[in-house]
Amino acid sequence: MIWKEIQISEDHKYFMFNGNRIFDKDFKNVLKFHEPGIAPVEDQSGWYHIDLYGQPIYNERYERVFGFYYGRATVVKDGLWCHIDVDGQIFYLTDYKWCGNYQQNMCVVRDFDNGYFHIDIDGNRIYKDTFLYAGDFYDGCACVKTLNGWKHIKLDGTDLNGKYFYDLGVFHKGFAVAKDKIGWFHIDKNGNEIYKERYAAIEPFYNGYALVTDFSFIKKIINEDGEVVLGI
């Protein structure tokens, strides 16, 4: 049985393969299988992870568990958040108020002072700075909120380009959405605008084009030069 082909029922109560129900069990809740073939489930005993045979991979039960990413899964017990490995073992000593999922072997966490930062695959803090908010790493960069505004950081926590914005998105194919005091636009990895126009709302570029909404709430399609190619 191929884990990528296992589906969950519409009510999130059981699993299916090739259209047939498997494991012959209803759960209170199920989430999708993730590599290497492990899924989060909830029954009367609590939350835990099962393997491709529907069997628990450990004896512990949690208030909540999430999927495995890079061999790590977020779990919650007694209101404390941390990560376990595929053997069900907690592999670092620190608990957090919240944990994200690992991306690029790094994960964002929130401490009990509500500060955000990133830890590495072994649970070690990567840099000394603490942020008001931090997002996942994508393409080697993450968005963080500081007292001076939003900026991008690199994998070691240092500034990508030294530019601050009112709001910010992750990079996608070399461009990110950003907001200044006028409105939204797209920037390159140097933090420079790629056109002069500003918008009420924008989306990342999708194969060279992006959906934007102007301040008259008219939606348009622009190219990577900022030229309007279509009104919709």
List keywords for this structure.
single chain; 232 residues; mainly beta; Lipocalin; 2 domains; 4-stranded antiparallel sheet; 0% helix
Description of the structure:
This protein has a four-stranded antiparallel sheet with strand order 19-20-21-22, with no helix packed on it. A three-stranded antiparallel sheet has the order 1-2-3, with no helix packed on it. Helix content is 0%, strand content 39%. The chain has strands at residues 7-8, 15-17, 20-22, 29-30, 39-43, 46-50, 64-69, 72-77, 80-85, 98-99, 106-110, 116-120, 133-134, 141-146, 149-154, 167-168, 176-179, 184-187, 201-202, 209-213, 219-223, 228-231. The mean pLDDT is 96. The protein contains no helices and 22 strands. The protein folds into two domains: 1-130, Lipocalin (Beta Barrel), CATH 2.40.128; 131-232, Lipocalin (Beta Barrel). The chain is an all-beta fold and 232 residues long.
Short summary:
The chain has 232 residues and is mostly beta strands. It contains no helices and 22 strands. The mean pLDDT is 96.
